[in-house]
Each structure stands twice: as structure tokens, then as C-alpha cells.
Amino acid sequence: MNAAQPQGRRPRRLTPGRIGVYVFLISAALFFLLPLWIMVVTSLKPMEEIRLGNILALPQMLTFEAWSKAWSSACTGLECHGISVGFWNSVRILIPSVIFSIIAGAINGYALSFWRVKGANILFGVLLLGAFIPYQVFLYPLVRIFSMTGIYNSLTCIVLVHVIFGLPTMTLLFRNYYAGLPIELFKAARIDGGGFWSIFFQVILPMSTPILVVATILQVTGIWNDFIFGLTFAGRENLPMTVQLNNIVHSTQGERAYNVDMAATMLAALVPLVIYFVSGRWFVRGIAAGAVKG
Amino acid sequence: MATIPIRVPNLAASRTTARSRIRKRLPAAFALLPTALVVLVVYIGCMLWTVRLSFTSSTLLPKLDWVGLAQYSRLFANDRFLTSVENIAIFGVLFISGCLILGFLLAVFIDQNVRGEGVFRTVFLYPYAMSFVVTGVAWQWFLNPGLGLQKLVRDLGFPNFTFDWIVNQDMAIYTIVIAGLWHGAGLTMAILLAGLRGVDEDLWKAAKVDGIPTWRVYVSIVLPLLRPMVITATVLLTTGVVKLYDLVVAMTLGGPGIATEVPAKFVMDHLFERNNIALGTATATIMLIAVVSVLAPWVYARYVRPQGRHA
């Protein structure tokens, strides 16, 4: 998985073939950048300018009004407090969900890859299969269980759901990482009389920084972008940003304010985008580690 | 995982009796207990509960009667459901093959020692960081005929240009495919590029000596070598297909009419809005059967059979 050294063919001078390569790559890049460009310029235009068409053009009258409106006064139904409500809800959901799901994954991965527990392989197999099963299969019974225990539609509920459905990926991630650590290390710690938890905290956890970073990136992006769980389990008081964005865009009363919609969309995309651009290679590593190695 | 202290030629370890070994493993088993509980209650329990509900006549509230396969026969006479199945098939085939082809091309072209490789990679993959809701809203705005792409091209001097797929019953599902491709092609590119970088340099030298054209090497030699990556990407994309829901909700709300309904949305609507639990759970069960029959062999071969850590 060492992506540092470009291989393939040797670089040559500018032949028609080389030009073709760049033409293809640049047109592909334009395709991928187009929606982002449109979102940004639309969000910076006043509605009069948007009505003229020319969706690609730079704003002639640059205005940040749509952004402030999207943040603090855009309406979803009767509530007009902007998408900031959803932003803070997402933050409140995100932090405990990420922390608890990573703790659970690390402990599971450690127990699965260093300790021989009866039935652990079956557990892991079922857990993995669970990762592929459509959520729709679990949703209704889960809603019933949570209603019975009285935590349905609460912050606890949505955090719990994120931890539960984060288990397969997180466990797989940590198990694979720990499987790559030298077993001699663990054996030495055992001979020194280390127990389950002392080896975990004193030997394994200090070596886990890379995978903790990868897991954090993966979970922050995943949980921030979640829609279906937020919609189903968070309750009206805790709706995450994605759900609120969808409500803002689809609550059509009168003319749609495309600039506000696009500003809200940009705001909802901001956290994962920042993570993506800051983390760079680590982001790719996260996807790859969750999938390719096994 | 394999043998823990058994083969270690060490006195301290060999002195460990079987019983104390088990005692020491107890905390490990204990640590796995919550997960085991979740697997039992949520992954297995809720799944069975859903399957059981699909054989009942539950509407607003769950009942535990038994109506056999009645819900399933209703389902297969339901236009909305049949459209959903057709749509997910169209989306699945086009999205997966499209992502693989586009992803492979992008990876190969990036692998030509191009300048600004990092920039291209970043640009191709960034959509994957964004949510489907964001993707859907952005593409909906871009493709709306009134002010989006169609108007843009018409204003450029092609007054008869028509691109109204998103409001066209027959074509709307293809706009979802386009948005999906935009979101997922970069992921495939990243996975395949990692594979390309693992290809032995000698192979290229040998091919050069033999005078084999580059494209031929990619198609006939490199692509077969990338098989594991292609499979991984396909599996990832397939799970994305089955979960397709947010993108449709954000982009078309299943419309125009029922033109872009998908099974996951069918389930959600029937469970939480249309008060038809039995029909919703029956659909969920069909989704479950579809996924398990496709993925069980793969998961078994890849993760369960090679036991433990030295897999």
C-alpha cells in the first residue's frame, strides 16, 4: 500500500499521447469540480442574478447574505433558526459517537487479534456480515426496543445507534492493524505477567496512534454525513445537519432561494471537506484500511 | 491469533497451565461481551424480528398473527415496489460498472507520471467526503432545466438543447446514476491506484523489452493482477447501491411521480409514513436475502475461513 513512488511508464517529452493524458485528466477534474464551483458561486449571488441563468458565472454582486441567512434564519417548516441548529446538533451527536465507537472498536480489535476467545471468530464473522446488511432490516425493531426503554428520540439513542452500527468497521480496522503488530511484543508482555487490560493500556494503546487517527477520520466523516439514523432516531430536538439541510431545501414556500440552499449545502459539507483536505493521504488510508486489507 | 504460549520455548510460559490460561483469557471474553450482546440482540434479533413481521398483517402497530406470504404477493403486485426494483437494478449496473471503468481510467491516467498527481487525486476523491444529501442537493440544482445546465447551454447559442432528465419520468433515474458516479468514482480510483502502485516494476521493463503496447499491458496483464482490488471496490460499491436512499431523497424525493423510487426508500416510507409495517418489513426481508446471497460467500472466503491473525 505504499503509494509514494509513482511507477508505470517513464515520463517522456510532450507527445500527442502525453497531451491526451492531460486532456483526459483535466476534463475529468472539471467534471468533479463543477458541482462545487456551482455551489460556491450560487451561494455568493443575490437571487436577481441567479434568475438570469448563467449558473457558471462568477457573481457580479458578491454578497455573503445567503450564507448568514442559511446559518441563522433559513426556515424548515415553521422554525426559522437556520442550519446552525443542525450544526450544533451534529456536533453534539458527533463527539460522543466518535469517542465511544473508537473505544469499542479498539477493545474488540485487541481482544480478537491477541486473545484466543472461544467463538470469537464466529462473532467477528457475524459482525462483518452485519456491516453489509441494509439498515432497513434493523430499523423498525430497534425503534421498538428504544421506545420500550424510553430513550427513543434522544441524544443517547442516536449516539447508541452510531456506536452499534460503527462496530463492524471499527472492529475490523483495529483488528487488522493489531494483526500487523509483532506478536512477540505481546508474548513478552504476557511473560512479564501483564493482564488483558494492562497490556492494552501500556503496550498496545501507545502503539495505536496511526490507526486512531484513521478511525477518527473515518468516523467523523461517516457520522457527520449520516442521514438515515439521524432521521429515524435523533428526534426533532436533535436533528443532525444533513436532515435539516434536506428539510430546508425541500420546504418550498414561494420561490426557492437557491443561494440560501447552496450556502446551507456548503455549510453542511464544510466539516468533512476540511477533514478531507487537512488529512490528505490519511483519508485514503482510512478507506483502504477499512476495505482492502483483511 | 493461533498459538499463544504453547510453542514458545520459554520456561515461564510452558509452566502456565491450561486452567490459568483460561482464567487469564476471561477478561478478553468479558471485553467482547457487549459486542456479542449487540450482535445477538441487534444484528440477529432485530433481523429475525423484521423477518417475522413480514409474515404478519401489521399496519400501524406490529401484530404477531400469521398471514404466510400474503405480504410478498401483495408486494409483487405493487407498482411502486416493482419500479423500485427496476430502478435499483438500473442504478446498480450502471453505477458499479461506471465507477469501475471511470475509476480504472482515472487511476491508469494518474499513474502515467503526470505533473500535479496529488492535485488530481485530491480533486477526484473529494466528492466521496461529502454526504449524499449534499451531493443530491448540488446535482439537483445543477440539472434543473429552468436555471441549470439546460439553460446554460441554450444561452450559449443552442436554443433547442434539451436536458431535462431530472424532471423526465423515463430519464430521472439516470441523473441519480450521474450524481452517484460523481460521488463514488474517486473511491474506486483510490483503491485501484493503490493496486497499480503495487505492480512490479520489472513487469513494465519486461513488457517494454517485448514491445507490448502500454494499453495492452494494462488490459491483459495489470487488470488481472488488480483482481483483489476490483473485487474490494465492487463489494464496497454494491453495499452503496443497496443503501441508496439519502441521495434519492435529497435529489428527487423519489419523483417525478414514482420514477426514482428505490427499495430502501420504499421500506422507510412504509415503516414510518404509510403505516404499513408488514409491507415495509417484507421489502426489507427481500433486500436482506438479496444482499446475503451475494455477499455471504465473499465474507466467508475472505474473513472467516482464514482463522485469526495470520489470515
TrEMBL record, chain A:
Q: Which GO terms describe its cellular component?
A: plasma membrane
- Which InterPro entries would you find in this protein's record? MetI-like, MetI-like_sf
| PROSITE patterns listed in its UniProt record | ABC_TM1 (PS50928)
Q: What is this protein called?
A: Sugar ABC transporter permease
Pfam families according to UniProt: BPD_transp_1 (PF00528)
What family does the Swiss-Prot or TrEMBL record give for this protein?
Belongs to the binding-protein-dependent transport system permease family.
Per UniProt, subcellular location reads as: Cell membrane
UniProt cross-references to CDD domains, sorted A to Z: TM_PBP2
Record's keyword terms, sorted? Membrane, Transmembrane, Transmembrane helix, Transport
In this protein, which residues make up the domain named ABC transmembrane type-1? 87-279
Query: Where does the chain cross the membrane?
Result: 21-40, 93-115, 122-139, 151-174, 195-218, 262-284
* Gene Ontology biological-process annotations: transmembrane transport
Entry membrane topology: Multi-pass membrane protein
Name the PANTHER family on file: ABC TRANSPORTER PERMEASE PROTEIN, GLUCOSE IMPORT SYSTEM PERMEASE PROTEIN GLCU
The main place the protein resides is membrane
From TrEMBL, chain B:
Which UniProt keyword terms apply here? Answer: Cell membrane, Membrane, Transmembrane, Transmembrane helix, Transport
Span-the-membrane segments of this chain are 29-51, 88-110, 122-142, 171-196, 217-242, 277-300
What organism is this sequence from?
Answer: Microvirga vignae
A cellular component annotation (GO) from this entry: plasma membrane
| BP GO annotations | transmembrane transport
| Stated family | Belongs to the binding-protein-dependent transport system permease family.
Keyword DNA-binding on this protein?
A: no
In the bilayer, the protein is annotated as: Multi-pass membrane protein
Q: Which InterPro entries match?
A: ABC_transporter_permease (IPR051393), MetI-like (IPR000515), MetI-like_sf (IPR035906)
Q: Which PANTHER family match?
A: ABC TRANSPORTER PERMEASE PROTEIN
Show where the ABC transmembrane type-1 domain sits: 85-300
Q: Does the keyword Mitochondrion apply?
A: no
Indicate where this protein resides in the cell. Cell membrane
Q: By what name is this protein known? A: Sugar ABC transporter permease
Give the Pfam families listed for this entry: BPD_transp_1 (PF00528)
Which SUPFAM superfamilies does the record match to this protein? MetI-like (SSF161098)
